[in-house]
Amino acid sequence: MAQQKATEEQDTAIKAAVDKATSGLRSTPSAASEELTKPHAEELRALEERLVVNHREKAAEAAGTAKAQESGPAPVAVPTADNQKAVVDAAVAAAGPLRRQSSKRNTRLTLRMPSRAAGRKVQ
Q1: Is residue 26 part of a domain?
Q2: Of 28, 68, 81, 122, which residue has the fewest beta carbons closer than 10 angstroms?
Q3: Does residue 2 sit within a domain?
Q4: How far apart, in whole angstroms, are the C-alpha atoms of residue 45 and residue 52?
Q5: Predicted TM-score (pTM) of this structure
């Protein structure tokens, strides 16, 4: 019985010491904790600075792009039916001699092809 009482007193003392140590750690931040958080806080500040610089660069680039689009090339005139007809007529007139030359070349090629085939021996 005396041994059981001593064990209970020892358990009570251990529990009190643990509670005291735990409440002491919770109430005051330790130097070790500050040493661990300081590098992370510095890293977060550096990342924030990089993010702000990146955001400013992209905003300036977007503003430059918008300004360039506003001062872009002048709008193209919409062709009228008369303009289109004149362009088509000019293209047809320019293509006429080319079409005649092309058809002459094709005729010569077709005339030569059978003579080449006749020269070959069939096996």
Answers
A1: no
A2: 122
A3: no
A4: 11
A5: 0.33
